[in-house]
Design a protein that fits this description.
Layout (H helix, E strand, L loop, with lengths): L8 H13 L2 H8 L3 H15 L4 E4 L2 E4 L1 H32 L1 E7 H6 L1 H11 L4 E7 L1 H9 L5 E4 L8 E15 L12 E2 H5 L4 E3 L4 H9 L11 E3 L2 H9 L5 E4 H10 L3 E3 L1 E2 L4 E9 L6 H10 L9 E2 L9
Parallel strand pairs: 3-4, 3-5, 7-12, 8-9
Antiparallel strand pairs: 1-2, 5-13, 6-10, 6-11, 6-13, 6-14
């Protein structure tokens, strides 16, 4: 605890200026204040310390013996404060040059690359580290303060996190070109989709969590046919004829264009979802994280942060 007898740094610097200049007037000029203000500050310092520090004479002002002692100690304190200030400036500069991003697979693979290209153009000095994982893991990383900004795909954002919508995505049912569903002109209904064994991502993935939320009116969902940890593995399994899957339209766009996968229409379920940027509650992103959030957010400047509701299921 700082003693109530210790003057502030500005007051200590003023005392040293009086010692160097030998004049209250010259000290006032050096600090850009009036001479009466200097006199008042010196009296305040003396009241705090409890002994006279400055002697006023017709030839100017000088420090008393006690004032010389206090000035010597003050010089040490001010030098230490300069070291502290330099260290803080270094930390701030370092934080402005590094950005740690954690993102769910879909965002990391299909949206972040173009956002980061724009960020690099604006901040060429910033080094970015990107870690791709499922949404539940992104939330854990953000709560542990191991990243500066996170991006998730789940229908809800977990407790302790604020969020902002950055994009809208759509889940699509995909099958191999030889799958029987391809021949259904009217597609399938949500009830049949819920009852079909699918090739899934792992339970904590955002895609799977969003699908479960979209089909919550048709319980129970069938057990997975396969559970795979990456979107590319799911795509490959579907293309090889393992069975249907539900994936982000962003992730399968090229496959649909090439014809290696075929989209099947679904009736009775809304498969759109919102993608969110997240950060710990009350700790609005700053520096390069703030700039990346601005780049990622549609209608820049109009989005507003909102607390994430406590999720009843693992977010993806």
């Amino acid at each position: 605890m700082v003693s109530p007898h210790v003057p502030g740094l500005d007051s200590l610097a003023l005392l040293l200026q009086v010692a160097v200049s030998g004049s209250l007037g010259r000290a006032a000029t050096a600090h850009g204040i009036s001479q009466p203000a200097v006199s008042a500050r010196i009296r305040t310092i003396e009241r705090l310390v409890g002994v006279p520090l400055v002697e006023r004479t017709a030839r100017g002002s000088c420090l008393t013996p006690n004032g010389v002692l206090v000035a010597g100690w003050a010089r040490t304190v001010l030098e230490a404060a300069e070291v502290l200030d330099a260290g803080i400036a270094s930390l701030r500069a370092t934080s402005e040059q590094q950005l740690r991003v954690a993102a769910s697979m879909t965002v990391a693979e299909h949206l972040l690359p173009r956002w980061l290209v724009r960020l690099t153009a604006e901040r060429p000095e910033t080094a970015v580290s990107l870690h791709a994982m499922n949404s539940a893991q992104v939330e854990q990383v953000m709560l542990a303060h191991q990243a500066d900004l996170g991006f998730v795909e789940g229908p809800q954002v977990g407790h302790g996190l604020d969020s902002q919508v950055v994009a809208t995505d759509r889940l699509v049912v995909v099958v191999a070109p030889t799958h029987p569903w391809r021949r259904r002109r009217g597609g399938i209904d949500a009830q049949e989709l819920a009852g079909t064994r699918l090739v899934h991502r792992e339970p904590t993935s955002g895609t799977r969590t969003a699908l479960e939320a979209a089909l919550s009116a048709y319980p129970p969902m069938a057990a997975p046919l396969l559970e795979l940890s990456t979107t590319s593995a799911v795509r490959s399994a579907v293309a090889a004829g393992a069975g249907p899957a539900v994936l982000s339209r962003l992730a399968v766009g090229d496959d649909l264009s090439r014809g290696t996968l075929v989209e099947v229409t679904v009736r009775g379920a809304d498969l759109t979802r919102l993608l969110h940027a997240i950060w710990p509650t009350g700790q609005r992103p700053s520096g390069p994280a703030r700039d990346l959030l601005r780049i990622a957010t549609p209608n820049k400047g109009s989005g507003s942060a909102r607390p994430g509701p406590r999720s009843q299921k693992p977010a993806m």
